[in-house]
Amino acid sequence: MASNRADQALAEQWREILALHARTQCELDRALHGHGLCASDFEVLDLLAEEAADGGCARRVQEISERVHLSQSALSRLIGRLEKDGLVERAMCAEDRRGVRVALTAKGCALHGEVRPVQRAVLTRMLADAD
Question: Shortest CA distance to 54 belongs to which of 121, 103, 114?
């Protein structure tokens, strides 16, 4: 009986995590929509901005896919949209011709800087409510 309650509590905890994620994702999408972005778009821009802050200039698509939870095809479409909007640029990897690197453009960097406080405010609010 006790193991059944522990099992139910574990499942309920998991459902609460999923619900928090869904609510936060919706809030992020709502807050970023006015800037022409969704939460996944911002995640890619944020990863690329981190790379630039660390002295790098681009990330391989494979590295991005390991950090954002999108299928390879969804990530490819997302990067294509960001590229079409002038926020990122793609280039072949010099060390591996099969690989593709993605970097922020000046426009992407500026938009990231403008939107980052909005995204962080949503995270702060939503995750504080979770405590």
Answer: 103
